[in-house]
Specification:
Blueprint (H helix, E strand, L loop, with lengths): L1 H18 L5 H12 L5 H10 L8 H25 L3 E2 L2 E2 L1 H5 L1 H21 L2 H21 L9 H28 L3 H28 L11 H4 L5 H9 L5 H7 L6 H13 L1 H19 L8 H16 L2
Antiparallel strand pairs: 1-2
Helix pairs in contact: 1-3, 1-4, 3-4, 3-8, 4-6, 4-8, 7-8, 8-9, 8-11, 9-14, 9-15, 11-14, 14-15
InterPro entries: Isoprenoid_synthase_dom_sf, Polyprenyl_synt, Polyprenyl_synt_CS
Keywords: Magnesium, Metal-binding, Transferase
Protein name: Polyprenyl synthetase family protein
């Protein structure tokens, strides 16, 4: 199974390289920038894996669907980096750092357009699914910029953001794989739910690594989100504890964390806080919920691989 998926992913990678080529050389350069920098290819891999639940896993439509979700993801990263004013992405200069905000935003738009062109090849139902996914993704991005209102639970607000920004597209990845791989409607529905849960858990495990990792396992310097004031699962859980013993922690979180000494202190306090284990337990529970969705998938190597896929998410956070 692993060998087969590697071979199929190589086909997707080659197709992606072709899909970011424009008639204009400069557009090709900017659109290829993040893809050439690498990435986990989490979404196309899930398309390929979900397709194995059907009888058409080798179809060209599966490869096209895998390209659709990865191009959509890449496009969102261009916009994300402008919004976050991030200097680096995947170890390379963020596009806006190299070419400016206008070029970065328009490159993201161009990639969204390319993904839409490919989606049209998959038929009107795929277009509808992609449109609904894109709506949720952008809603999540907008909600991320909004401070929760009075009486609104900040943690619930954040989980809604994660479900929109990350869970929605990963759910569609699993759905497309099942659909275009020839799976039954029952399996497609189950894998969509599975992808939604795994997708959110994947982002939340990154939140934990941002605090717990000493070696940049999350692909970023540990504490990056913390320094930038980005809310994450462990921080929100620590705040929700409302423990008087956390007075210093809350003071630091509410202050300027661009100062190296303050940043190091708050990172140390969070690593010792019960909220970190609480966050880990939450992600493990979500991974188990995702695996429970797989009851309709026949036992065998495909189901085993999907379960392992969910387990990897949980292991990343422990």
């Amino acid at each position: 199974m692993a060998s087969r998926l590697r071979e199929r992913l190589a086909v997707v990678e080659e197709a992606l390289a072709g899909h970011v080529v424009s008639r204009a050389g400069f557009v090709t350069e900017t659109a290829s920038h993040l893809m050439s920098a690498g990435g986990k290819r989490f979404r196309p891999l899930l398309v390929l894996l979900a397709a194995e639940t059907g009888d058409r896993a080798d179809s060209d439509e599966v490869v096209t669907a895998a390209c659709v979700v990865e191009l959509t993801h890449l496009a969102s990263l261009y916009h994300d980096d402008v919004m976050d004013e991030a200097e680096l992405r995947r170890g390379a200069d963020a596009a806006h750092s190299r070419w400016g905000n206008h070029v970065a935003i328009l490159t993201g738009d161009w990639l969204f357009s390319r993904s839409s062109e490919l989606t049209a090849r998959l038929g009107p139902e795929a277009v509808r699914i992609q449109a609904e996914t894109f709506t949720r993704l952008v809603e999540g991005q907008i909600l991320e910029t909004v401070t929760p209102g009075p009486g609104e639970d900040p943690l619930a607000h954040y989980l809604e953001v994660v479900a929109g920004k990350t869970g929605s597209l990963i759910a569609t990845s699993a759905r497309y794989g099942a659909r275009f791989g020839g799976a039954t409607p029952e399996v497609e529905e189950a894998l969509t739910a599975y992808g939604e849960i795994v997708g959110s858990a994947f982002q939340l495990s990154d939140d934990i690594l941002d605090i717990a990792s000493d070696s940049g396992e999350s692909g970023k310097t540990p504490g990056t989100d913390l320094r930038e004031g980005v809310p994450t699962l462990p921080v929100l859980m620590a705040r929700a504890a409302n423990d008087p013993a956390d007075a210093r922690l809350i003071e630091l979180l509410d202050g300027d964390l661009t100062d190296d000494d303050r940043h190091a202190e708050v990172l140390d306090l969070l690593r010792k806080h019960p909220a970190l284990d609480e966050a880990r337990a939450y992600v493990v529970t979500r991974a188990q919920e995702a695996k429970a969705q797989l009851a309709v998938v026949p036992p065998g190597p495909v189901r085993d691989a999907l379960e392992a896929f969910a387990d990897i998410v949980a292991v990343r956070s422990t």
